[in-house]
What we know:
The complex is a heterodimer of chains A (394) and B (310). Chain A is built from twelve helices and 18 strands. Chain A has 394 residues and is an alpha/beta fold. In chain A, the strands form four sheets. Chain A has an eight-stranded mixed β-sheet, with helices on both faces. A five-stranded parallel β-sheet of chain A has the order 3-2-4-5-6. In chain A, strands 1-13-12 form a three-stranded antiparallel β-sheet, with no helix packed on it. In chain A, strand 17 (376-386) and strand 18 (389-392) form a beta hairpin. The longest helix of chain A has 21 residues, at 2-22. With 310 residues, chain B is mainly α. Chain B has one domain (8-308): ABC transporter involved in vitamin B12 uptake, BtuC. Chain B is built from eleven helices and two strands; from the N terminus they run H-H-H-H-E-E-H-H-H-H-H-H-H. In chain B, strand 1 and strand 2 (152-154) form a beta hairpin. Chain B starts with 7 loop residues before the first helix and ends in a 14-residue tail after the last helix. The A-B interface holds A 176, 202-205, 207, 209-210, 212-214, 216-217, 219-220, 233, 236-237, 243-246, 261, 264-265, 267 and B 6-7, 10, 13-14, 17, 21, 134-137, 144, 146, 148, 153, 155, 158, 227-229, 237, 269, 272-273, 278-280, 282-283.
Amino acid sequence: MKKLMVFLFSLMLLFTIGCGKEGEMIKSGDTVKIAFMGPMTGDAANYGKLMSQAVKIAVDEFNATGGVNGFKVQLIIEDDEGKVEKGDPAIEKLAGVDKVFGLVGAVFSSVSLQVAPKAEAAKIVMISPSSTHKDLPSKGAFIFRDVMSDALQAVVFGKYLATVEKIKNVAILYVKNEYSQGLAKDFKTQFEKEGGKVIAEETALQGDKDFKTQLTKIKGTNPEALYIPNYVAEIAQILEQAKQLGLKVKIYSADGFSNPQIFDLAGDLANGVIFTQAAQQPASKTRTDFEAKYQSRWSDKPDAFSLNAYDGARIILNAIKAVAQKSGDSLLINRDKMREIVAKTKDFDGASGKITFATDRDLISNIGIYTVEKKKYKQIKMFQLDGEKLIEIK
Amino acid sequence: MNLFNIPSNELLQHLINGLTLGAIYSLIALGYTMVYGILKFINFAHGEILMIGTYAGYYLFNILCNPADGGIRVMLAFILSMIFAMFVSAFFGVTIERIAYRPLRKAPRLAPLLSAIGVSIILMNLAALFFGTKSKKFDYPFNNSTIMIGGASITPNQIMILIVGLILMISLKLFIDKSRLGKAMRATSQNQSVASLMGINVNFIISLTFAIGSALAAVAGILIAMEFKVYPTIGQMAGLKAFIAAVVGGIGNISGAMLGGIVLGLLETFGVVILGIPQGLKDTIAFSVLIIILLVKPSGILIKNIKEKV
């Protein structure tokens, strides 16, 4: 009896190993599947809608040029409603039932962080078009993103202020949410590493309108500059109240400042603020072509994340094409080799610009230093981070 | 340097910040306290009445003039908008009382309270639907550049908040203490049936109370909006804080509401500065004060004029 059990278990084990192979084999008549995951219903549905439309264009273009050795690619769209708990069943289905090779998504950082370990275990190449949380790519060798990490701009800005603008001490006023808190923390670490000093660190709650107490305290410490990596609603209040309190210092911020609503809320006070954002990419043909196609097919304008989603899908599709091999009637796609191809992506001509993945699978991005002149954004400098060194790109 | 080891100009600055915050709380608290005094019920839709009035003022102000022009025309437009906002708020206050509270006047006390919370949620969501959830800037009708006093700064709007607050509070006090209608209000608050036997139209007095409280809320709303922008949930936190202010001063007591607002504004500011309470816990100060007052002195810090409840 015992021997029989051992035999049966060995058989099952063999079967599971066989399954691994089966997950890479596409039988004749089947399709090669890739997926998009994001909020398709609920409050944030518009994000998912815009991005999934971009991925659809990429897949259709790919199929129109012949697909992979005669095999068509099929797009599976999974709705996570932007919620962590919906991400779990979605990734289980994609990994277990659909056996997808690539995943564009998820949209929100919280969901991406949740599904990444499962994508990694199932060897699905995952490229998030919009999750900026700095920890995401470290979740596994199959996890990439083609959007700028939050940490990058804070690090670049910390170096920039200390070494280029030669600021000695700053005060920070940030709101307690993931975005602002993360930026403030990373900025502080970097700025102090470069010899600068953070002489006041004040916090507020999301939705606060009155920052006078914090600003009065900050004024008392007499800083050279004030760093406010928040969203525009808070920034507008801070700018106005800083002026009321007679706090006359240089104001620095992050890409939350890049929402033009700031000009309605803060008016002329926005002038002269310096902030970081992904550097402007020169207009490319890929981009104008994509935008025209998107507009005519969906009568909608693609947002920045849609450009990333389109590029991510194309990187995945190209990798599938590069590693796919015919074996008899079937198609064999080696997942590990596919991952290697994606990891080697360098100067890929994307709609969002040139895409290169760093060895940590994060997007190598140039950071622009922007300012506001007469209520208009203007890029004044551009930097690249090469290891520890800050290199200006002219 | 002084007792708290804070430079005196900074201390003065905190005092100004706290006083202006407190004056706004006081103005809103008056509405709560007046209604409570008469109906023994807390109008939780008060913050939303404030919000409606503020939007009304905002739209009229921007239709009448271009605030960027400055000058006397803008100032006139502002005063007109303020009066319009008061009327709109008063209208809403009276209508809400007529529709949502009056039918429940004889019902158990929990019923009108729930009705008020319902009205509050409806109004807030309608505002989000019609006006959008984005903040809108309410421009100053005058040049709001800072004035320096002894190393601390104060803006014309802050001075206006203090002066307008003071004028309105004093006139309300005089109205209630000296006028015939005020006397009728006091009578109604003490005993509705006896008041009506004396020939007082109780329903009219209650409507009047709602109208006055709501109009004051509109003024407070516009004063807040210039400092903090207009948005659909503007009445929520301000309303909650003002409610606490009203309780601190002894709910139902006009002078108490004024004092309670100022005390709360100062506590919030100095709690952070002197006691070193983390900024993130700022709102906790107000709620802790509420709990302490309810435990220790539920009648509020002002108890003497129990008779002049309104």
